[in-house]
Amino acid sequence: MLSSLKKVAWNAFGEEQSWAAGRRNIGVSVLILLLTVANTYAQHTDEYEYMVNYPDNSTVTLTRYTGSARAVVIPDVIDDMPVTGIGDEMFSKCVNMTGVMIPESVTNIGFAAFYGCSGLTTIALPEGVVSIGASAFEACWELTAITIPPQVTRIEDSTFGYCRKLTRVELPDILVYIGVNAFYLCDSNRLVAGECEEHAFLVKR
To answer: pTM score, two decimals?
Structure first.
């Protein structure tokens, strides 16, 4: 008697259909959903790749720079959405870049975002930035001065490591943490950085 039972499924309209047809429809629906998500969260322009931030779906984080300019001006809006983040390794090893202008809309700078930008001499961080990732400016050899925005509470590990020409850093009053190697190989005798723990200048052991 059990062998006489047929497998059935229902489509989105509540109509009965064969089990096989139902499985096919589910597979098609999943594929459409995956393609929609991919198109929504991984997009690009002529010089930037970016993703739409979840869950607000109304702001973007830049994920890759494909241009070659020496002086880079980061857009504040892409596809009618504010740029709020510079993603991990976004400009990593852009050795020809000498300067970058970051828009006021940016609030987060990711891990190693400017790592190895050995020609970078000037950068101004917007006052709205609240977080800067570890190694964000590591090995920016030509960088001489920087002001940390007033809402940043942490300087993560190796943030300015190997920035050998860095002689002036202005830190915010609300800073609560300076990580290991944050200023590694910066001259602690010349660097004006408020009160820094000794480990900020040392190799982690």
So the answer is: 0.75
